[in-house]
Every structure is written in C-alpha cells, then in structure tokens.
Protein: ABC-type transport system, substrate-binding protein
Organism: Massilia yuzhufengensis
Amino acid sequence: MMKECTRAMRKSYAYCPYKEGGHMIRNASYLAPAMKLRLLAAILLFPLVCAGSAAQAPAKAQEKVLHMFLSTSETGLDPASASDNASLSLLENLFDPLLRYDYLARPAQLRPNTATAMPEVSADGLTYTFRIRPGIYFTPDPAFKGVKREMTAQDYVYSLKRLYNPALKSPWAYMFDGKIAGDEALHKDYSADTQVPGLQAPERYTLRIRLKAPDNNFLFYLATAATGVVAREVIEAYPGQAGNHPVGTGPFMVKEWKRSDRLVLLANPYSSAVFHATPGNNPEDQAIAAALEGKRLPRVDRVEVRIAEEFQGRMLGFLNEEYDYLEQVPESMTDMVVRDGQLKPELAARGIVLSRFPVLQTYYMWMNMNDPVVGGYGKDKLALRRAISLAYNNAEDIALLKKGFAIKAESPLPPNVLGYDPNYRSPVPYDPQLANALLDRHGYHRRDQDGFRRTPDNRPLTLTMHSEATVGGRLRDELWRKCLNAVGLRVVFKSDKKTEIIKASRIGTVQMFESNWIADFPDGDNFYQLLYGPNAGRANYSRFNLPAYNQRYEQARALRDGPARQKLYFEMNQLIHAYNPWVPLTHVLSGDLRHPWLKNYKRHPVEFTQWRYLDVDVAQRARSVGARR
C-alpha cells in the first residue's frame, strides 16, 4: 500500500487530498505560503493515512468453491448434440435457454430466463413472441476478436436451426422437426441462412416462433439444455469441434477441462441473472427464497467437478468431505450410510442431512427390434421378449440392489409426471413358470448339452446384454444372469463405458441394454416419445416402430392432459406390454446426502443441477475439515 501511495503522489504531485475547487493541483510553487504549509502537512500525513486505510481495509473474502462430481464422463459440450446426463449437467450451467424452471415451485413451473417475461401467445396457440432481455453477453472467446459480444434474438434463431443440421444428427431434433412453420426448407438444403417463416427475429430483442399446429409441450422444449443459445461466430470458428469449445451466456464458464477426468467452472463475470422463485408452504423453501430473492447468480466463485464413475469412490469422496453433496446414494453403498431406514447417528452428528426424493426417472431394459436374435414382430420373437420380461424379478431388484429406494415401474411413466395413472398395473408380472411355458410353446423347447434353450430352427441361442463397467453394473449383470438362466436363456455381458454404449446404441449395434430416462420436462409425452417409430436411432434406442402405437402417440401429443389423453396412454401401455420392446424396471426414490455448510440446496424434479443457486459457508467447511484432520 505504501508503494501505491508513493507512485500516486509522484504521478500527480498533489493527489486527491489536495484538490482545490475540484481540480487537481499539479504545481505547488503557485500556492500561497499558508497553502504550501497545509500541502506540506498533508504530504507528510499522507503515508500515515494510506497505512491507516490499509490497516482498516477488510480482508479479501475467501473464494467460494463448490466441490462436485459427475457419475459418467461427458461426451461433448455442444447443446445440439449432447444427450447424456453428465454433459447435460454441464450444459445447463454454461448455456442459456429462453426459459428455466422455477427453483422452488412444486409442481414444476416454467419462468423466464433470458426472456423478460413468459411469451405472448396468439389466440390460435400457434405464435409465440419472446422479448429478450438486453445486456446479456457471451463469455469471451477469440472468435469474437476482442469484442464484447451481446446475445440477441437472432442468436436463438441460429441455435434452433442448428438442431436441423443433418451433420449433427441431433437427438433433440424431434422436439421441433416438422412443427415450426416452413421448417421443411431446412431439409431441402440446410443452411444457417435458410429463411424459415416460423422462426424469425424481427427486432434485435424480439424472437417470434410460429408453429404448424398447437403443441401443448412447446414451452417445455424451450427450457431444455438443447435450446441453449450459441454464437454463430464460435460454431464457425471451430468447424466440427463446437463440443470442445463451449461458449455460452450461462452462469458459469469453463476454466479448465481435462476430458473424462476433471473440469473447473468459473462464475461468469458477465452473468446478469437474478434469483426469483415461488416457494410453497415448506419452511425450508421459504428460507431459501428469503436468502436468495433478488440476488445475482451464481453464488459461488467456482465449481470443481471430477468424474467419479465408481460408486465406492463417490461415497468415500463424500464422506471424506471431498464433495459437498451426493445425489442418489449408490444402491450397493446404502448400508454405509443408512440403518433401519434412517441416516446413521454418527453421520447425523456431523450435520449431514439425508433426504428422499422421487425422481422423474424410469429404469428400463430395452431390446433392439431390428436385432436378428431378439427383434422382429413375429410370434416367436414376441414370445422370447415376453419371457425375458416375465423372468425379471422386480422385488429382488428393489430389495437387494436398490435397498428399498425404488418402486416397481408399471409403465414408462414415473409418479408426478402429467399422465401418470397410479391405478395402472402391468399385465406382465414376474412369473418364470409362465415364461418357461411360453418359450416351450413357441419353438424354444429344445436345449443344448448345458441345458440352455435353442432357437426354433434348432440353432444355439445366446443373448448379449451390454452393461456398464462398474461395480453396480456387475451386480445388475448377476441379477439378470440369474433371472434369464432360470428360464433356460443363456446370456453374455459386454461391459463398456456408458458413453461408448450410447454411441453403439445410436447406430443399432447393441442388442439389449438396461438404461434409464430422466424427464426433460414433466409430461408423459417425454417418456412415450422414447418408443415413437420416427425417433428410432435417436431417443428410441429399441427402434420400436409399430403403426398402432405411432398413431396413438400422435393423437395424444395433440391433447392436453385429461381423460382423452389418459385413454390413449392406457392403450399405448397395453401395446408396449404386448410387444415388449421394453422391460419397465423401477422408478427411483433418490437418497440424497449433503454437508451442513452447503446452503440453498433443493433437489429439482427436472433440472440436473442446482449449482447456480448454491452457496457455501467457507468458515463452517474449514472448521469441519480441520476437526476431522
């Protein structure tokens, strides 16, 4: 501080304390004697004033760091291409869709994000007009050539058009393809400059979207990570490599990135997001609202993210205070933290909190309908898939693997999703005896010397199920092996990273795989589209393509939630259980853990992360970590 004061005095001769009439006095020789004496006293006193100011200056606040993990590796950070949970978790912190979900409102509600308000909707339900909030900027990148780049409505036009780019094969294209007025032009000759009548920016901060037909879920689509706004300059500066150069307007920006290992996100210095939410009667929600209302987001300075694919590593990392919270206690690790359904007393004594959360998630095992072994629509193939479904021991899965933190999936829809029927029951129960009888009846009665069934044309029959190369994946392999062997079906497992399995699934080279779907938006359509024929190879990994199902799906998509749509959903469930492209497994009850220094935590049913809202009591964390060491 003394050095700074001296430099300032040398530069201006008479710094701020010597102002005369608001002007800087640079030559003391012109001053009257009395003024000279005052100036000399001031000069002598000035270092003491500076030193005193230094002594009184508050210490710089400690950096607030959120310590997190992702359970699988990211595939890439391009909003138009990524569809795995790890990448989506990062994307929603780096890029901004027009709308987001209210952090506290239950059931889930949308609210403006980069828009100034919810859109104006025409009387016919076709035209949506958004007003973009001025003063939102992309994070710096060489593609902008040193210019601070403001985001405008035209950037959303460009970003939505990218979903149609045939080179990207976007898994999110289904949300818009064929729905926006004039979008067929993008199929004839795709270009970012192709004019689409239903996708226009008539003014700098005005975006207008016109649909061909009303879509009750359209606003939900505009809150997905896929619609996060990107800058054309960045995409064109890195051809084919946009996923390696994430540049958005979201609350965070990438500081460091070591693929499949570690990422560091910094608070976006340009962020202008401010917290607003609608809490209910829950006191915890009201406390969060009181703490955050009107404050700038994000609340932490940086987020350090590790990739932790092994369940044990995640759990031990949390218990060793390397991570601030852990969502969904791994099923194989539940006994480490829970006793008699409650958090162990020794963990509660550390201030750790356990909460249960009904995730909008469905676990299912899908079978490739184009595969020569399990695919097809003939009676023998239907019998094989039905037998596989009948052989699955749901109760054992929930009790032994999920430790009671799940409920049986009767259909694709989890509870709390619009369209869910709590009274619906699957007509395909766990019944290995019936499975054996069904296989015997439809040509699978012959056995090889090891007792395993042969095909109707008397060839060896081996099922191949992909699985994740983790402890949890191996446990699930053993359950499936036990279930399928019980009905005479041989199965082999091909272990790989989930990202590699997803890639193979998209090109149709996976026969069977146990997967899960977390809602992009809280409506049944988001789950039933997973079996819609035109989505084959994208969201529809099973490649199920049944006209009767497709027709009902299209009819249901045009309806709001109500009795008419509920009837169609019932019929679609019956078709799924008749043809068995899926074995619906479970809906998870997530057991979540958090440390006491983490503030404002509230699990959201749709969004993947809460990072922008979270705060950290640095002193409390330091005391806890110090006490344990």
Observations:
- Residues 358-589 form a domain with the Dipeptide-binding Protein; domain 3 fold (CATH 3.10.105.10).
- The chain has 19 helices and 22 strands.
- The chain has two domains: 65-304, 358-589.
- The chain has a mean pLDDT of 89.
